[in-house]
Amino acid sequence: MLTVAAVDILMATYNGGKYIAEQIDSILAQTFTDWRLLIRDDGSTDDTLSIIADYESKYPGKIQVIHDDAVCKSATRNFFELLRHAEADYVMFCDQDDVWLPYKIQITYDYMMKAERENPGKPVLVFTGLQVVDAELRSLDYLMSLDFGEKRYTFTELLMRNCAAGCTQMMNRECYGNLGGFQEGIRLHDWWTMLYAAAFGVVVRVPMALALYRQHGNNAIGAVPKTAGIATRIIWYITHPFARASKVNYYSKSMLIVFHERFAASLSPDKLSWIESYLAMFGGNIFTRFKAWRKFRDFDFMKIHSVIKFRVIFLGAK
User: Fold this and answer.
1) Model confidence over 156-181: pLDDT tens digits?
2) How far apart are alpha carbons 236 and 224 in whole angstroms?
3) Looking at domain 7-214, what is its CATH homologous superfamily?
4) For residue 82, pLDDT beyond 50
5) pTM summary value
6) E strand or H helix at 37, and its extent?
């Protein structure tokens, strides 16, 4: 029987047999040892189930495979199912195909302890950077969540985009215990957690890359590295503002509708106003959209994805 540890690591799996052993081994090699690993599979048809069952039998006090009848069909919902089984004071999300550096948990935990001392009783989310690597763990010279300042993870910027992958996050109980259950409008679990922490608590960035973020062609969400071929980069930079703007609009609109429905009564007036202004860009007449856009026009996201200016004012953000 598993005992409650300081940190519950939540791993959502689906057809991850090719790389999952490396990820689990990297967790077993952590310098911080007061953790337990909860794994929930969502119907794998490869050898994932046999691999995780083998690890569970070898490490019965540390690793547990969750068995239930839920069919999630998405990593986000799978992670929400895992959250229902968390019992530790702190949780971390874990992808099936990455590799954690040996001191990832310890450094993140130390930042968490400091943040809680400075913000007693508040929800706290700590996130780190990532080093993007290829399928063989060779560096692709691309860092995520390291090349920006604090304003990128303020509540208002997070309305428009997320900046922290789930596999970089640690949350305390005050944060993860109040997220609520899964709902169809919640497209990305890590963006949802960042929104909640920024709305009601504290978000802290660790300025270090503590995980190897493997890119292998089947990632649910990936990154285009700086060393990508010239043709790939040209196509990416030409299409990126349009594709990214449309995709982010789609994700943020659906999540913010749910967020507003779920937490409006608890939000401070200024945060509630920001949400309602952002949602106004998705409906109403041209004057309503233009007024809402003016409130956000100087934010980094609007500057980078300038196509939104056209979409919002003339077409409405879809």
Assistant:
1) 889 888 889 999 999 999 999 999 99
2) 8
3) Spore Coat Polysaccharide Biosynthesis Protein SpsA; Chain A (3.90.550.10)
4) yes
5) 0.86
6) strand 35-41
